[in-house]
Amino acid sequence: MLQELAAQTGASALAIASMIFFMVAWVAIAVWVLRTRPEDMESRARLALEGEAEDSQGVPPGTRTER
């Protein structure tokens, strides 16, 4: 039943195209990660921590910042 539906609607071509797109995206991300320098990864890993420290420095003591 599913094979007949796929043959009538052309869904098999979409399935193949989506699998190829997934594989190309996965390989591109893997290559990007493997080529990235460790220093760049370390600086990106610390971005969230640095942002929190900068935000809390400008707030006067006793000021409520959370809602």
Report on this model:
The radius of gyration is 24 Å and the shape is elongated. The mean pLDDT is 77. The protein contains four helices and no strands. The termini are far apart. The longest helix has 25 residues, at 11-35. With 67 residues, it is mainly α. It has one domain (2-55). The chain has helices spanning 2-9, 11-35, 38-45, 47-57.
Task: Describe the structure using short key phrases.
67 residues; mainly alpha
Query: Main beta sheet: strand number and arrangement?
Result: none
Mean pLDDT: 77
The total tally of domains equals 1
Total DSSP helices: 4
Q: What's the β-strand tally?
A: 0
Q: H/E order of the elements?
A: HHHH
Summarize the structure.
By secondary structure, the protein is mainly α. The protein contains four helices and no strands.
Annotate the secondary structure layout:
Blueprint: H1 2-9, H2 11-35, H3 38-45, H4 47-57
